[in-house]
Structures are given as structure tokens and as C-alpha cells.
């Protein structure tokens, strides 16, 4: 059963790493939005394509665009932190349950 425990632990760490990378992508996109980026730049296109599917529903749910404030990146980062604390830690604790 230790193999299953190690698999779950590795999966938890991969999920944690992916969430951390995505959080940094969100932060970079928020920082780039403060300046006037070239919309044809490949990095800007990549950032918008990767983050927009997550940010758009939150913007519709909390419409503050008319005030000039976009708090959707902050909300996504808080959700990522919640998932990291709840899901990843739960997976790690489950992995320890299978390890002798």
C-alpha cells in the first residue's frame, strides 16, 4: 500500500506546483495590465489565453469594471490558496494514511 501512498503524495505535489505556477501567471498578467502592452506580443497573447477563461466568469460574477477596478485576479489567487491548503494538504494526509 505504500506505493499508493507515494503516488498520492506525488500527485499532491504536482497539483501544488501547477497551482503555484498558475498563480504566478495570474500575477504577471495583472502586472502587465497596469501598462499598455502590445496586444500582438506572443507573451501577452499567451497570458490572456491562459488566464481569461478563469478570470472572465469571476468578472461577470463580481462586476466592478465600471469603477475601473478588476479584483478578479485577487479572487483567483485566494481560490488557489484555498485549493492548495484544502485539497493538497488533504491528499498529503491521505498519502500518509497509506504509508506504514
3D structure, described in words:
With 100 residues, the chain is mainly alpha-helical. It has one domain (9-98). Helix content is 78%, strand content 0%. It is built from three helices and no strands. The protein has helices at residues 2-32, 42-61, 72-98. α1 (2-32) packs across α2 and α2 (42-61) packs across α3. It is elongated. The protein starts with a helix and ends with a helix. The model has no long low-confidence stretch (mean pLDDT 91).
Topology:
Layout: H1 2-32, H2 42-61, H3 72-98
Helix pairs in contact: 1-2, 1-3, 2-3
Keywords, please?
3 helices; elongated; mainly alpha; 0% strand; 100 residues
The geometry reads as elongated
Based on secondary structure, the structural category is mainly alpha
DSSP summary, beta strand count: 0
Largest sheet: none
Query: What portion of residues belong to β-strands?
Result: under 5%
Low-confidence stretches: none
Amino acid at each position: 500500500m505504500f506505493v499508493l501512498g507515494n503516488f498520492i503524495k506525488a500527485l499532491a505535489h504536482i497539483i501544488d506546483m501547477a497551482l503555484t505556477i498558475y498563480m504566478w501567471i495570474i500575477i504577471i498578467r495583472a502586472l502587465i495590465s497596469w501598462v499598455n502592452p502590445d496586444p500582438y506580443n506572443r507573451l501577452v497573447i499567451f497570458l490572456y489565453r491562459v488566464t481569461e477563461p478563469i478570470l472572465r466568469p469571476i468578472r461577470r460574477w463580481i462586476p466592478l469594471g465600471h469603477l475601473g477596478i478588476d479584483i478578479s485576479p485577487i479572487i483567483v489567487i485566494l481560490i488557489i490558496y484555498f485549493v492548495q491548503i484544502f485539497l493538497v494538504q488533504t491528499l498529503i494526509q491521505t498519502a500518509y494514511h497509506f504509508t506504514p
